[in-house]
């Protein structure tokens, strides 16, 4: 390494505490050129010497006629700007509307965390993300906390990729400090009702005058579609389904001999799917539609399958969730009263059956009907591949989500064991089968 006194323009400064700070100071001529300025090189001697020599090479090239500007200081990109860029990006535009709404909510929280968006992105390090993780898990539910951290990780990953591909504003960040942070995933929700619980919800909805909630329960359970997709579906999505086997047509056909279904595009997966309607769902929908068909004096341009009021317009998601909560709570109270009535009649079997129903209805949410409908089909022996065809998942996706949508419970285990025993008995009874002692 050259000695410090042999390196032009390198100076050292002794501070009061004994620390030595190095500086690179170009001449007035070099400063007036606009290409070079005084640079503070820090306290590390080796790094200061190396940087001073690199700057001197730039001076030599400049003097030889090749104009080289000193590297400009990278512009500070703050968190608010990064969020704005992401919201304006194609990556964000390609998300489903429901996902955009969720991400926007998480980004709003993260902007508040990042000093109202003024925090420089380059200042976000692993320790800062760890502090955020500890805070959200302390103050939020596991689901909400994990969602906020996942959006931060996604945002910083997008920043890196956008910088590499487009090369704008230099490097925004060099690495993702949230990539290695352990995000505790919430336990999969396993709440479900059984087919015999559904009449309690439907009757309670009708008693409260919430016909839209009754229709929603029927569709949610029998079609296994997401709430947002069902709320966005209009009556024009109902259409005949013709490509059926004779057996399927016999089971699904209505009084007119036709099989009707709902055709929709799933908002989350963009999968186009047609779901045949079971007779009870078709009858409920036709009764609902008959009361809202356009007449000569008042035409309804768009009539949604699930709509509140006489206008036939869409039911807002929050309104629907609130009304479902009221229906479920009312159904639970009615079941509890029925339990006491059964006990008064000394009908213990009925009382225990109703107690199990009350347990399932307590805390049930509309999203649980999707899982419940899939479990209902599973309990009846419908193969996973056919359940996937109804719900809209690919077969591979179905295999991955079995633990979430099809919780392995005692009833399923008993059905599986009984099926194995019965099929083994059938095999043992085949003609010519040797019977062992």
CATH superfamily of the largest domain: Intergrase catalytic core
Just give the CATH class of the largest domain: Mainly Alpha
- Can you write the helix and strand succession as a string? EEHEHHHHHHHHHEHEEHHHHHHH
**Residue share in helix:** 40-55%
Overview of this protein structure:
- Keywords: DNA integration, DNA recombination, DNA-binding.
- One of its GO terms (molecular function) is DNA binding.
- The protein is mainly alpha-helical and about 425 residues long.
- It has three domains: about 60 residues; about 90 residues; about 200 residues, Orthogonal Bundle (hpI Integrase, Chain A), CATH 1.10.443.10.
- It has 18 helices and six strands.
- A three-stranded antiparallel β-sheet has the order 1-2-3, covered by helices on one side.
- The longest helix is centred in the last third of the chain and has 28 residues.
- The radius of gyration is 33 Å and the shape is elongated.
List the helices and strands and how they pair.
Elements (H helix, E strand, L loop, with lengths): L9 E5 L5 E5 L3 H5 L6 E4 L2 H19 L15 H9 L2 H4 L3 H17 L12 H14 L2 H25 L31 H11 L2 H13 L3 H5 L6 E3 L5 H7 L7 E6 L6 E5 L2 H12 L26 H28 L3 H14 L5 H13 L4 H8 L3 H11 L4 H19 L9
Antiparallel strand pairs: 1-2, 2-3, 4-5, 5-6
Care to give the gist of this entry?
The protein has 437 residues and is mainly alpha-helical. The protein contains 18 helices and six strands. The model is unreliable at 164-172 and 292-302 (pLDDT under 50).
């Amino acid at each position: 390494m050259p000695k410090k006194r042999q390196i032009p323009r390198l100076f050292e400064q002794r501070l009061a505490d004994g620390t030595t700070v190095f500086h690179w100071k170009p001449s007035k001529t070099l400063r007036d050129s606009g290409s070079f300025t005084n640079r503070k090189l820090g306290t590390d001697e080796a790094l200061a010497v190396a940087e001073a020599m690199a700057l001197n090479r730039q001076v030599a090239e400049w003097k030889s006629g090749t104009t080289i500007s000193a590297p400009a200081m990278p512009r500070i990109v703050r968190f608010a700007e990064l969020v704005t860029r992401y919201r304006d990006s194609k990556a964000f535009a390609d998300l489903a509307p429901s996902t955009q709404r969720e991400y926007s909510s998480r980004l709003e929280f993260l902007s508040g965390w990042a000093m109202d968006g003024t925090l420089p992105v380059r200042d976000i390090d692993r320790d800062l993300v760890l502090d955020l993780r500890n805070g959200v898990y302390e103050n939020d539910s596991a689901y909400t906390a994990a969602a906020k951290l996942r959006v931060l990780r996604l945002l910083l990953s997008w920043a890196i990729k956008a910088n590499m591909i487009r090369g704008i504003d230099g490097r925004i960040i060099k690495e993702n400090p949230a990539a290695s942070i352990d995000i505790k995933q919430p336990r999969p929700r396993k709440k479900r009702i059984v087919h015999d619980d559904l009449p309690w919800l439907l009757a309670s909805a009708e008693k409260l005058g919430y016909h839209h909630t009754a229709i929603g329960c029927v569709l949610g359970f029998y079609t296994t579609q997401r709430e947002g997709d069902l709320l966005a579906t209009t009556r024009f999505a109902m259409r005949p389904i013709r490509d059926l086997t004779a057996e399927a047509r016999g089971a699904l056909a209505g009084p007119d001999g036709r099989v009707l279904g709902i055709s929709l595009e799933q908002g989350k997966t963009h999968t186009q799917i047609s779901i045949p309607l079971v007779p009870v769902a078709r009858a409920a929908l036709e009764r609902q539609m008959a009361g809202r068909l356009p007449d000569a004096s008042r035409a309804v341009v768009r009539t949604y399958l699930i709509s509140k009021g006489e206008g036939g317009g869409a039911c807002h998601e929050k309104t629907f969730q609130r009304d479902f909560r009221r229906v479920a709570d009312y159904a639970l109270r009615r079941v509890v009263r029925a339990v006491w009535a059964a006990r008064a009649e000394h009908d213990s079997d009925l009382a225990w059956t109703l107690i199990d129903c009350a347990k399932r209805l307590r805390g049930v949410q509309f999203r649980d009907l999707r899982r419940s409908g899939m479990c209902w089909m599973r309990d009846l022996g419908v193969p996973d591949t056919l359940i996937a065809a109804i719900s809209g998942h690919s077969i591979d996706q179905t295999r991955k989500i079995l633990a979430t949508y099809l919780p392995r419970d005692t009833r399923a285990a008993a059905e599986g064991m009984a099926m194995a025993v019965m099929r083994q008995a059938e095999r043992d009874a085949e003609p010519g089968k040797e019977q062992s002692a």
